[in-house]
Amino acid sequence: MSHYLHINGQRLIDSLFALGEYGALDGGGVCRLAATAEDKAGRDFVVARMKALGLAVSIDAIGNVTGIYAGEEELPMVMMGSHIDTVGTGGLYDGNYGVMAGLEVIATLQDAGIRPRRPLAVTFFTNEEGVRFQPDMMGSVVFAGEYPLEQALAAKDRDGVTLDEALREIGYKGERQPGDLSVDSYVELHIEQGPILDKEGIDIGVVTGVQGISWQELTLTGVSNHAGTTPMSMRRDAGLAAAKIAVYARELALSLGGDQVSTVGHISVKPNLINVIPNHVVMTVDLRNTDNDILALAEKRLAEFVAKMAQEEGVEITRRSLVRFNPVIFADEIVNAVEGEARRQALSWRRLPSGAGHDAQFMASVCPAGMIFVPCVDGISHNVKEHSEAKDLIAGANVLLQVVLQRAQRTA
Amino acid sequence: MSHYLHINGQRLIDSLFALGEYGALDGGGVCRLAATAEDKAGRDFVVARMKALGLAVSIDAIGNVTGIYAGEEELPMVMMGSHIDTVGTGGLYDGNYGVMAGLEVIATLQDAGIRPRRPLAVTFFTNEEGVRFQPDMMGSVVFAGEYPLEQALAAKDRDGVTLDEALREIGYKGERQPGDLSVDSYVELHIEQGPILDKEGIDIGVVTGVQGISWQELTLTGVSNHAGTTPMSMRRDAGLAAAKIAVYARELALSLGGDQVSTVGHISVKPNLINVIPNHVVMTVDLRNTDNDILALAEKRLAEFVAKMAQEEGVEITRRSLVRFNPVIFADEIVNAVEGEARRQALSWRRLPSGAGHDAQFMASVCPAGMIFVPCVDGISHNVKEHSEAKDLIAGANVLLQVVLQRAQRTA
């Protein structure tokens, strides 16, 4: 009946730009850290739109906000959503797009006089970015029951303010228990935040799952000595050992192939002086793979190389796991629905895993879940230059509309 | 006549500890940055000792202070010396030892009723360390006429205070023109600041020269992207290129062999986040060799590798030379005299170049110059833990005494 229904593209883009006004940075981009005054302003804007659409607004104890469009029957809801918090120098699209597109889907159905069989919902989860409070994806991990609510609320920012205090301050400490909504399916529309769709000129990313993530911190302790007077053979150079590990991390990803990635993003050197051999380095290694066995193999090989470096370079090295998420595989029924809709709408598409973490990975333990990606220019995200073309944003929302409608109307 | 003359070891050690009281740090070590109130206190202490020994004190326009013990004849002076400024977390011996040992040599001769043929002098040069004002070794490079006085005086510290202002403030802006003293020879006694003598259990380092130094700063610009979503093949990772250069710098030193050393002491990464590919790195490479041709070859090979990395990793790399000193070869007559004295005094000795810069390298362009090294424990220097054993300090001063006396008495 509604395959030819289309969302209102201009209304979607306008709503994204309107939300982008809250926490807008001079010169572009947004800073809307979780549970700040800027976040409150953004939340208030989205809640006002939910209410204007006649949605029932539900807020839970971790600040997740869900707007519900009642269905014809009392059944579990088909949920769309994402987050509206941003990193310190964020763009207009990361997270925000999935939320505003969800509301646009509901508005489109209302305009067409369609009330679906199942309720539809749009949720924005608290603190997906994890910049102000750790861990990230906090609202969804708590919703899924995989992280204790009390522990999340006790997380402190740099100034010692707890998330609980911050949520109360902005008026978003709700009464509902996280996870007490009955959810039939979860579909998250998001910009890719990577370069693949943009480079390959593809409209729709059919997201098959989320890569497993292993974050390790290495602390290297050598001996600080004079760069001129210490023969090469007598050095215990923590900086050199760190450099060798960084080079190995790249080789490791290349040798494992597939979608294995490896990044050394953080390196801090002490004393960090031109003429002093470094005696202290803290570095991080970020390993990701969709295949948990290969990810575990990468971790094992890295550990072996680190041990070898410690011995060869006379440097003490300790390892600490910061984050370890297993890969998530999205439900076939959602993945296939996204692919089918992209094909029916004559959009180019490809299957790909998400390299970034998303709320959908936790919702996948609650109900059948999936994601739709659209391209972002040059893969740039977490950056004020983050940009996606309006036509791509509109195309993604039209796929979301049809997938959600299928899910909501189905009788099987 | 005086081969069996010995310095007063206790008096030397006491004087070093007494000087170390000025600018003393809690828990050990000294902070006496050039031309600060602490430096003034240290200078006043040394000048008071010069006056107590009846020396004529001469201060030049860059704040170099020379105490002169008149000789029997009006001839160019045999100068000892070093510096008394320290790094922020310095030890008691670096520089200070050569100055106080020089005064101890004169005191010993006076005690023995010896007035040498040529005048003897002890100089402490201004701002050898170069921490507060750049360049380092400033007093001696100006004394040697290899750096303009006005430019040196105009050097500003972080607060915008010029060296000229700072010297006037502490009362050490003298009237003499730097370099207008007539110098016959220069002998500098210093702790090695490296591990060779200590590791090999050797008493005296016969310093053959000073390694040439090449300091380069590399700035690498790549593209910052998400660590999870950016395939390995699409990365322009400035951090990885920096790591490869650091590993190459080590390989370069090993492949050139000899006394070639190479150090990457400074690495600053942006944005320096665990899950973001670095887009900006500033790193330094410190290359040193006693052979200028090999040093130039090392620079050339490094430049070639840097260019290759820029191409292979898609990273823009700019190079800037921060410092370039040619190697210095000390005068045979001084080197041989030091070696001969060590042998005559039944001390173990070895020839070695200095890997660190010293005032003697500029004095070598003024007159025959040389240096004597004594061991420091584990080669640790520029550190509050810097330590040399009293017996080693005393042995070095006894070699200085005899070398200086030979130079001062010689008739050839």
From TrEMBL, chains A, B:
InterPro entries referenced in this protein's UniProt entry, alphabetically: Amidase_Cbmase (IPR010158), Bact_exopeptidase_dim_dom (IPR036264), Peptidase_M20 (IPR002933)
A Pfam family it matches: Peptidase_M20
Alphabetically ordered keywords of this record: Hydrolase, Metal-binding, Zinc
SUPFAM superfamilies named among the record's database cross-references: Bacterial exopeptidase dimerisation domain (SSF55031), Zn-dependent exopeptidases (SSF53187)
Residues that, per the record, bind Zn(2+) 1: H83, D94, H190
UniProt remark on cofactor binding: Binds 2 Zn(2+) ions per subunit.
Positions that bind Zn(2+) 2: D94, E129, H382
GO MF annotations in UniProt: hydrolase activity, acting on carbon-nitrogen (but not peptide) bonds, in linear amidines; metal ion binding
Cofactor(s) required, per the database record: Zn(2+)
Protein family according to the UniProt entry: Belongs to the peptidase M20 family.
Name of the protein described by the UniProt record: Zn-dependent hydrolase
Originating organism: Enterobacter soli
